[in-house]
User: What shape does this take?
Amino acid sequence: MPKHNKIIVCVSTDDSERIAMIQRLLVKNGLALTAGDARKIIRQTPSDFDLSSTYFVAASHYDLGSSTLITPQLFRLASSGILVIVGVKKIKPIFEFMCEAYFQGDI
Assistant: This one.
């Protein structure tokens, strides 16, 4: 599994498409063998993970500007090489340089 240094964001207004994108990335990065396996490890939000001891984060719903506590933790995890994937409805320009964004059809 390659080391990452940015938060990977799956950008789509459609919930099911965001989840499908995250599933494909989890399979591509070796955390799951099939999309069905990947679906089992995706959580609703990053808060559903114990961010102090997790070795990956895969959350289907998040707004990078919503939390002054969780977002910096996610960036810290990603910069230390931990795979962080979150689904977002849109990405604000202020966060673009810190993220690797995938849009519908990219993966």
